[in-house]
């Protein structure tokens, strides 16, 4: 969940020298501070290719309130990053972008690059997916942070900009920042480079931070550290955030609302509790069921989604998920379903939401058993493997059931495998 307005997480080496202040005191000149923060309406992005028109983003709608964290999840190629680049105005000139993107009531689509430069970094900033390609290898990291600061504050002296750069590096947990500010990007590890990119994104205390898969290609320990840094960034700047990821485990701990994308289109939008406990779209249910759960009271097999997403070139009529959907019926092939209201602030693009609701978040009730699952029942469990539930009960190692094996709870050698731990279910009607 977003912790904006509360005490930020503590990190070793992350200390503030006092020049940063929490939240913005003024909005960008020329923008209405009382208008909605960010509104995206019917956003469509098309790219002309030799094979036809690639409809990469199809009708994306969302709004962002101050201090809110919106998680956008989906498989690779679902249009998540293209959506964020469209908001920032960073798509190539060949892209055909329609719809509406409003920041503080003003339309951003169609603005010149000079006009967008006023918004980028100060109003809306972005943490790019690959820090090695987003940082210039021939400039020191301090110089790149200072450039970001001085573009939006012409009166800032070189000495003050360097001091601010040092403070930002300390804030994101880089030790010995006074010396490391003079280092080049190749002298940092992947996790440290990602911290530098986060420092650049939060340098001018933007109102919106778009984080495009900031934990991709990082091991699980560094992922946790980066998420703590992001929480610190939200706390220090008072910003709202759009967290783009394919990892539902990341979203569970930081997001307030979740937008699930498939084949360039939002297929389910709801609060984080709605998405994790009561999904209404088979694709969302499949995403949840394909990852291990540490908070599950029962031992359930994983339910991978078979097949691959469809091509977004000349898509056939009907639901794009139909060929992979276990609830597919003939009506699914007639037309692509609209998003139906299935609860307060909860919509899903599926004509069989009632059948999905009956599963109550248990993917194994919808997705059928595969041949691999049946073969697993005759395979002996690896030596020394025990289920988390058995260890927590204090009964020692136990042999897992035939339909599942799982690592010991808290195992440190899980590599980069994602594990979902859903947010606590509210008990009194309030948000957790």
Look at the structure and give the mean pLDDT: 81
When the domains are counted, the total is 2
β-sheet strand percentage: 15-25%
Measured as a percent range, the helix fraction is 25-40%
The major beta sheet can be summarized as: 8 strands, mixed
Low-confidence stretches: 1-23, 374-378, 385-417, 428-432
| Continuous helix count | 14
Structure classification: alpha/beta
What is the topology, as strand order, of the major beta sheet?
6-7-8-3-9-10-12-11
The backbone outline, from C-alpha atoms, is: globular
What distance separates the N and C termini? 8 Å
CATH class of the largest domain: Alpha Beta
Which CATH architecture of the largest domain would you pick?
3-Layer(aba) Sandwich
What is the CATH fold-level name of the largest domain? Rossmann fold
Total DSSP E strands: 12
Q: What's the CATH H-level homologous superfamily of the largest domain?
A: P-loop containing nucleotide triphosphate hydrolases
Order of helices and strands: EEEHEEHEHHHHHEHEHEEHHEEHHH
Q: Which oligomeric form is depicted?
A: single chain
Domain ABC transporter: 38-288
Membrane topology: Peripheral membrane protein
Family: Belongs to the ABC transporter superfamily.
GO biological process, one term: peptide transport
Walk me through the structure.
- Its main location: membrane.
- One of its GO terms (cellular component) is plasma membrane.
- It is a single chain.
- The protein is of the alpha/beta class and 432 residues long.
- The protein folds into two domains: 38-255, Rossmann fold (3-Layer(aba) Sandwich); 260-393, no CATH class.
- Helix content is 28%, strand content 17%.
- The protein has helices at residues 80-88, 113-119, 131-134, 141-152, 158-171, 177-180, 190-202, 220-237, 248-254, 272-277, 282-289, 353-357, 371-376, 388-393, and strands at 38-49, 52-64, 69-73, 96-103, 106-107, 124-127, 208-212, 240-245, 257-262, 265-271, 340-343, 346-348.
- The chain has an eight-stranded mixed beta sheet with strand order 6-7-8-3-9-10-12-11, sandwiched between helices. Strands 2-1-4-5 form a four-stranded antiparallel beta sheet.
- A hairpin with a 2-residue loop joins strand 4 (96-103) and strand 5.
- Helix 4 (141-152) crosses helix 5 (158-171) and helix 7 runs parallel beside helix 8.
- The protein is globular, with a radius of gyration of 23 Å.
- It starts with 37 loop residues before the first strand and ends in a 39-residue tail after the last helix.
- The relative contact order is 0.14.
């Amino acid at each position: 969940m977003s912790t904006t307005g509360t005490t930020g997480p503590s990190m070793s080496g992350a200390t503030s020298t006092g020049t940063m202040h929490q939240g913005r005191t003024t909005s960008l000149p020329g923008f209405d501070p009382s208008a909605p923060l960010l509104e995206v309406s019917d956003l469509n992005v098309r790219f002309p290719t030799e094979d036809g028109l690639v409809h990469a983003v199809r009708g994306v709608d969302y709004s962002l309130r101050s201090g809110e964290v919106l998680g956008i999840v989906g498989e690779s190629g679902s249009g998540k990053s293209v959506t964020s680049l469209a908001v920032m105005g960073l798509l190539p000139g060949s892209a055909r972008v329609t719809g509406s993107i409003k920041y503080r009531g003003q339309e951003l689509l169609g603005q010149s690059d000079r006009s967008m430069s006023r918004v980028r970094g100060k109003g809306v900033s972005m943490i790019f997916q690959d820090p090695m390609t987003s940082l210039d290898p021939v400039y020191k990291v301090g110089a790149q942070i200072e450039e970001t600061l001085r573009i939006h504050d012409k009166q800032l002296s070189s000495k003050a900009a360097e001091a601010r750069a040092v403070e930002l590096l300390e804030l994101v947990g880089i030790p010995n920042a006074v010396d490391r500010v003079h280092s080049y990007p190749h002298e940092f590890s992947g996790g440290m480079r990602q911290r530098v990119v986060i420092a650049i994104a939060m340098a001018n205390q933007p109102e919106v931070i778009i984080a495009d898969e900031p934990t991709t290609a990082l091991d699980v320990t560094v992922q946790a550290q980066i998420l703590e840094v992001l929480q610190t960034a939200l706390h220090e700047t008072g910003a709202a955030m759009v967290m783009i990821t394919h990892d539902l485990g990341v979203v569970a701990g930081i997001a307030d609302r979740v937008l699930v994308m498939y084949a360039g289109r939002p297929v389910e939008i709801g609060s984080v509790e709605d998405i994790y406990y009561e999904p209404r779209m088979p694709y969302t249910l499949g995403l949840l069921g394909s990852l291990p759960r540490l908070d599950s009271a029962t031992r359930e097999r994983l339910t991978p989604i078979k097949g691959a997403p469809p091509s977004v070139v000349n898509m056939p009529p009907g639901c794009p998920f139909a060929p992979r959907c276990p609830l597919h019926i003939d009506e699914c092939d007639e037309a692509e379903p609209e998003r139906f209201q299935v609860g307060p602030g909860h919509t899903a693009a599926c004509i069989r939401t009632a059948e999905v609701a009956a599963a109550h978040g248990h993917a194994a009730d919808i997705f059928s058993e595969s041949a691999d699952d049946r073969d697993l029942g005759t395979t002996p469990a690896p030596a020394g493997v025990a289920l988390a539930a058995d260890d927590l009960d204090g009964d020692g190692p136990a042999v897992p059931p035939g339909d599942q094996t799982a690592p010991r709870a808290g195992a440190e050698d899980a590599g980069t495998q994602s594990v979902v731990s859903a947010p606590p279910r509210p008990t009194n009607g309030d948000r957790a």
